[in-house]
Amino acid sequence: MTASIGQVRDIGHVVVLLGAPGAGKGTQAQILSGRLGLAHVATGDLFRAAVRDGTPLGLVAKGYMDRGELVPDAVTIEMLLERLGAPDAAAGILLDGFPRNTAQAQVLDEALAGKGGRVDIAPYIQVPEQDLVGRLSGRWICRAQGHPYHEVANPPLTPGVCDVDGSELYQRTDDQPATVQARLRQQLGSLELVVGHYRDHGILRTVDGTQQIDQVSKDLLAAIADVTDSRG
Ligand code: AP5
Hints:
alpha/beta; Rossmann fold; 3-stranded antiparallel beta sheet; 48% helix; binds BIS(adenosine)-5'-pentaphosphate
């Protein structure tokens, strides 16, 4: 496969947000992308949109997602590279949910290098495995834009309604307990390898994801500023 990004001429800063399922990547990506002016690119959101729209990609992805497995690299990488070619990538990208294994990490490095770019920093939101099940089983998502809530840790002002856009809240089918267990069983090993990939490149920054949401955001912003300020 040719790891080529397509039409966008330059890509700004690239931040790869790492964490286990339920660690808080989506929650933090929505906050940070607005603060930093980066395009939020979430492969899980792209797959859910494809499933909702009944596209050929969605039909392929659905079975893997329902089983808690990673969608095969060939389709995932093609979808991601196409998204990175959109004009908003020029302002910089905040990746959420990609890469999920070392093959994806290597393709990303290669594709960015083709545009004279690189991953600037990979913040890792670390949360112990025993906390993840409760986070996912209590999660509610808004239909319109995917804003995440938690029935205990981060409830909406009005039950069942998104604070931001007023749309209905729902629970993801892959947040059923059996699928959550499958996701953790099948995905935590490859996450460790991706964490190792960025540690080896000297750009991993670990943040304590068990803190309050706003403190996690502050720690992430500090870690990102540290690197992006020094690299220009
Ligand atoms: P994806 O959508 O990426 O799911 P995920 O990685 O499993 O992550 P989640 O969205 O479940 O969790 P999150 O870390 O974003 O947590 P959130 O902020 O919502 O992927 C879904 C599927 O798509 C995959 O299983 C796979 O099949 C496929 N896929 C996606 N990308 C792929 C790829 N690259 N390759 C192959 N397949 C791919 O928070 C969780 C809950 O915790 C919320 O309720 C939130 O309110 C709460 N919370 C957040 N922060 C805190 C805090 N600090 N304290 C207390 N509660 C908190």
